[in-house]
Design brief:
The chain is α+β, with helices and mostly antiparallel strands and 890 residues long. The chain has 5 domains: 92 residues, Phosphorylase Kinase, domain 1, CATH 3.30.200; 238 residues, Transferase(Phosphotransferase) domain 1 (Transferase(Phosphotransferase), domain 1); 137 residues, TolB, N-terminal domain (Rossmann fold, 3-Layer(aba) Sandwich); 116 residues, Tetratricopeptide repeat domain (Serine Threonine Protein Phosphatase 5, Tetratricopeptide repeat, Alpha Horseshoe); 178 residues, Serine Threonine Protein Phosphatase 5, Tetratricopeptide repeat (Alpha Horseshoe), CATH 1.25.40. It contains 38 helices and 20 strands.
Amino acid sequence: MPEYMINKQINQYRIIQKLGEGGMGVVYLAEDTKLDRRVAIKSLPSHIASNSAERERFKVEAKAAAALNHPNIAIIHNIEENADHLYIIMEYIDGRELKEVVRANENKALPFVQVIDYAIQIARGLQAAHNKEIVHRDIKSANIMLTHDGQIKIMDFGLAKISGTEQLTKEGTTIGTAAYMSPEQARHEEADPRSDIWSFGIILYELLSGKVPFHGDYEAAVLYDILHTEPEPLESLNKEIPAELSQVVKRCLERDKLKRYQSAPEIISDLESVRSDLQSGSSKSELLIETESKTTMSGKSVPARAGRMYGIFGLAGILVVILIAVYFYLDKPASPEAANDKKMMVVLPFKNLGVAEQDYFADGITGEITSRLSGLSGLAVIARSSAMQYKNTTKSLRQIGEELGVQYLLDGTIQWEDLGDGNKRVRVNPELIQIDNGTQIWSKPYIADFSDVFQLQADIATQVTAAMNITLLASEQKSLQLKLTSNSDAYDYYLRGLDYFEDTFELEQWFIARQMFEKAIELDPNFAAAYASLGQLHADYYWWHYDRSDERLNLARINVQKAEQLDPDLYIVHKAKGWYYYHGLLDYENALIEFDKSLRIKPDDADAYMGVASVLRRQGKMQEAVNYFVKAIETNPRSPQNYGQAGETLFLLRRFDDAKKYLEKGFSMAPDDPYNYTYWVWSTFNLHSNIGEAIKELEDHLHLAGSADLPEYIYTLVNLDLINRDFDKALKRFEDTYELNSQFQYVPGVLVRARIFGLKNESQKAEAYYRHAQKILEQKIIENAEDSRFYSSLGIVYAGLGQKEKAIQTGKRGVDLMPVTKEAWRGCFRLQYLAVIYTMVGEKERAIELLEQLLDHPSDLSVKIIELDPVWDPLRDHPRFQQLVGEDVR
């Protein structure tokens, strides 16, 4: 230690001894001569203190920690400045690091109750910090002190980040100590309270086993271990550890932070429940923990509060391995048949024993039971839409199990009767079957009044988990008792509404669903779930261009806000808000916040995963979107849409081989749906360039699917015809009255024909059609001046009419209304249209510049398409264009 500091005076503080040293400075024990007390002083070395960025970080550390006043957090007394130095004056903790407590007890042991007590104190300290929107980001057993009277003190908020402030570490570096670092921190993602919860789980694992769960000979190897390997189960290290306590650790260490505990109070609740069970007389309360013997490299004990410093070569090694790990983590698409280590089950549609008109009720109750089981610890439940494909199935249990990858199946019958006095009675006979041997492991008939249907659902869910030997946490037992409404008729209408709304995009079905939801609300004005579903329905109306009015958007807003006022803890409320923010406002940040809240309540909701993935895709975070689409597939493995969305996103990334695998899986499930097949054909074309074969395959499939007369697919065939330079065939396909009206493009049929005649050099016919298209599009802009699609198409029209400046100005207006920074996917369409405009008016350099930009960004455009599409013919003699198509950037 630097002896010259001993007995030195820093303002009112006299240095007594050095306590430790770390990456952010030296810690001394000092005497406060004014208040006659001992304090710890943390100092920045002068060469760091003189750096303005590091100095600012030091102040943020102090301000973050000084804002906290809790018995389980070390107190910050003051900030002092002296010459070129900065100091934090901290509470001096007379005790030992928790890490040393573990090491010191190698031949003794800590009772489980004592471990739980320490854990609860840590969680309470974290709760206090998180309530102030402060994330520690470096929780580890060396940063936690245990006083002589058994009190926990969380130390060193030196890596804390206050919500909303700029991160003061250099870009590209990791925060936190490797063995305790969360997966998201290892991947350079934003840390939040759940990152601290992961680190807390590491400490609890360490207290119970004597070692940390992730290992390596060097820190980079540890980080790779965190990202890719499963820790050794606690039960295998000590069979006496209570299963409930092991389950708490396991949930803390979920790699997917959406499946972790979402807040410290949840952990505290479950730990207190486990402690209560142990103290009530369980023999396990007297059992002790064996810990491993550990020493420092020197063989000496580590002084209290001693930090760790990493050499530059160690840091470089960490960064290299992290980059390698992240590359393999992100670049390889997860398998469509992703594995899940939880017990997997499916709730098949209960058979309706009543009249056919009551099918919706049987399906609705099945969906509600599925919802209650979804997200419980140790259990993964197949989504309702996948399960519904087995309604009235003739497949064997083993076939169903193999197709869905499940070990358990809940089946049953349901019947409801009108007793004639205004009351209704429900009869349900569920049975739980273990698929590998076809054994019925639980069954129980239920008869209940309709008003007790929610308790019936909760009872079934509780009995099913018990039969599967799944231990429910206290918070989960409470969530099972959820009651959506007390009005049985309102619930009946709500189930009818869901039957018409879910798994369809047909406007006629949605119209009936709206009536059902509104009737449910009329009968129960406090029915939060009905308001939420109605709000999501209005947002979907708006998104799919059924009604783009402000009135429709306002209806969505009113209903989701009302739902939240009535029940802010209901998962469907936050999910509906997520879709409203996304579909209605393109407010991605708030959409992600709401989907995240929904998944915290119901972690296995495939629809919410789809929401997150869809938003990430619009933000341009395509690989992250693929990862979340795969999560949706894991929960909903029989959804062609989920496979299609993953495949389509991989197509945008120009990973055509990977895209084909997902798209093939999608259209194998729904061969009459042309959507997945269309992208499969484009992927195949980009790989093999056989345009004639692509046209033939798509024509045959569209006829087979009965979709050959739909404008969106005819337009796809027209584009293939143009690439094949078969202009006459393209003209025959797309009639004047057709229009392409999607969220990406609005193209009237007369504009398609104008462009084809232009490519055929039939200028008079082209001009006539351009004039017709001009009238249509100018009127569209009068009706809606904020729709970027209209400007892009009108810019093409002006270019075709030779009005260069007007064409460029109008095309740019489309880009301004929908830039890639606002919407990565649709924004690329606006840029592509502008590139076409530049090409048509002779601005070759500007056109090629946009093409280069588009090829550097995920989009539908590829080198192969640019190479063959005749729209780019005017650019072919340009060296930059020749270089562009000569490079294989796929």
